[in-house]
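Notes to self after the call with IL:
- keep both proteins in one doc
- input above output, always
- annotate only the second one for now

Protein 1:
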Amino acid sequence: MGSAAFNTLVILGPTASGKTHLGVALAAELGGEILSVDSRQVYRGLDIGSGKDLTEYNVDGRAIPYHLIDIVDLDTEYNAYMYQRDFYAVFEQLTSRAILPVAVGGTGLYLDAVLQRFRMVETPENGGLRRELANYSDAALALTLRSLKPKLHNTTDLTERARMIRAIEIAIHLRDTPPPRSPDIRPLVLGTRWERSELRARILQRLKDRLDQGLIEEVAQLLDRGVRRKRLHSLGLEYRYVSEYLAGTIKNKNDLTQKLANAIGQYAKRQETWFRRMERNGTEIHWIDRGDPDTAAAVSRQLRS
């Protein structure tokens, strides 16, 4: 952490690893408020399947404030740019009142948006530029993009013509309109960690609990409201598999439970891979076995000065 104390606490980990429980406990002890880092909890109407678990935001009868939950409707295509913008706004509002932001979640893209100190900007379409680039060959587009971005990291931008044009559009916009500075976020990052067999058992039990709580009924209500099945498929595994069950593609509830639990287990492995990549790229993560609040609190006290 260096000589400066952290001004943000980040709790990450794979799904079903107890992040919310740990984050709320630490927010209560350290005088913080929760900022959800979850790509589905931003949506109104995605309650059981997204795991909002709002009853957990209470410690000894005291409600712990939370942010970035239920902020947009399902007809909004929320993205990492919007998340970074909204996170920064809440961060600055909290720190201006000397309140510790406690960011809790496992959406890797959103975590990177917060921790990488790269300010995203909204880039509008440039009709004139697009008409000009339409006359370029693919080779000329690639040459133009590399001249604008000599240290091009995302080489997939060179694989498709439309991607190259959009990448050039963004690069020119950034060149002519530099983004504002990112806020001074100095994070302490804690990760919840379980043995693989324990995590899989937690995933299965949590899924059974959510089915008992009305997950199938939640998805049926979304369909009745006119939410398209394709849209549900984009909103995560629970909504995808339950919509398939309601359509008859998955034949019974036992098959639904087993297929969905296996898919969530694979997703947890992909999350762990993302976190390892974050560490390789310089993010220091203090891993907390079984998400133990006492251990996490001790680490936080030791590093907060």
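Protein 2 (the one to annotate):
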Amino acid sequence: MVKIGNLELGDYPLLLAPMEDVSDPPFRAVCKQNGADLMYTEFISSEGLIRDAAKSVQKLDIFDYEKPIGIQIFGNEIESMREAAEIVEEAKPDILDINYGCPVNKVACKGAGAGILLDIDKMVSMTAEIVKAVKIPVTVKTRLGWDNDTIRIVEVAERLQDVGIQAISIHARTRKQMYKGEADWSYLNLVKDNPRLHIPVFGNGDIDTPERAAEYKAKYNVDGMMIGRASIGYPWIFNEIKHYLSTGEKLAAPTLDERIAVAKKHLDFSVEWKGEKLGILEMRRHYTNYFRGMPNFKQYRTEMVTSDTYEEVCAILDQVAKVYADYEFSV
């Protein structure tokens, strides 16, 4: 049984990665229903929380049916991160997660996210202060290092454990790689082989099929996996991986009716939570994956990502259901 503090997550948990502009409540809802064991919010700016910025505060919205859930924060000032952690705890998540992995320039080049990998001592000091500030378990998501010359992930994991984190998720790329090239999970074995390390280690990067999940589970000694981009528009991946790991067999691909039903549910919640304009706008990134592989679909995809009203999008989905009624997705 994998545990974070007193939180029991099963024998080999699958985690939904925190993804900016993706891991919102509507998306988390469909992932939870399709097998995600632990989910994280989008990352939240510590400075935004302290200043009570509306966008940051809205990201604190969590719901009972999502539990267990972690709220993730980022920032480059220790005092601000400590204050933000206290605000997060008031929202009553199961876990507080620290983002030490975001590679985008506007975050990393200001010393936050993956930027702090250039100052490990500050990373450890910041983490220690956050752990002291809250009673809930603190976890960390990070990368291997800033670049190939600064990979100190074995040391990082041990030092963060020593100041109190209760799990670590490692994206097996450097900041320099961004999301390119192949993730190098061999470093995760090195982390797990450290005899002083006893906290759970979750692997992240390139888990996009049940077969690859099974291969990496057998090859690398991690306690579970965190799935990010492969879940966008395809929340079924969690249950598909679980089924394959337990049986060695692949589940049938979700039918067109199932895809449309989940897409509509996702859309409904998005509009309800964000309002029609923003809810429709932020759904657009998901449509391609919901209907990936369908032939001659470009016209409908274009219509969906350019429609501005809820009624228009639903009408297009209904049309897709009629036109492709006999289409079968391959596994």
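Annotation: The chain has two domains: 3-247, 256-323. The mean pLDDT is 95.
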